[in-house]
Amino acid sequence: MSRIEIEAQKLLQQRRDSLWRPPVAAPLSPSPSWNDWESAPEPPSEERRRELEAIDAALRRIADGSYGTCLACGGPLGLQRIRAIPEAKYCLSCSGLHDLPG
To answer: What is the pLDDT of residues 68-86, one digit of tens each?
Structure first.
């Protein structure tokens, strides 16, 4: 694994962990049978789920050795793009052709 892949993997894992970080625990209920449904954590938003999916896909590409290669044209993503958007799937030229972020 290259230095760039190691750096990207570390950044991606940190972002993934921060997105999965559980909310602060609610205070204990006044009685064992009482549930405060309003204080229950909300399910992750669609945006958060998409970001987690993109991060997981990038981590899989690192593991299988295809990280840093554009999924559309097969060319390199470029060091600046990888550092700015570690989960990027497309090079700068191809990213405008796809309506998906990254």
So the answer is: 999 999 999 999 999 999 9
Q: Which of 44, 46, 47, 28 is nearest to 36 (CA)?
A: 28
Spell out the domains of the chain, with CATH numbers in brackets. Answer: 1-20+46-102 (1.20.120.910)
Q: Enumerate the β-bridge partners of residue 76.
A: 69
Report pTM. Answer: 0.72
Residue 19's closest CA among 48, 45, 47? Answer: 48
Q: Where are the alpha helices (DSSP H) in 1-102?
A: 3-20, 46-64, 79-84, 92-95
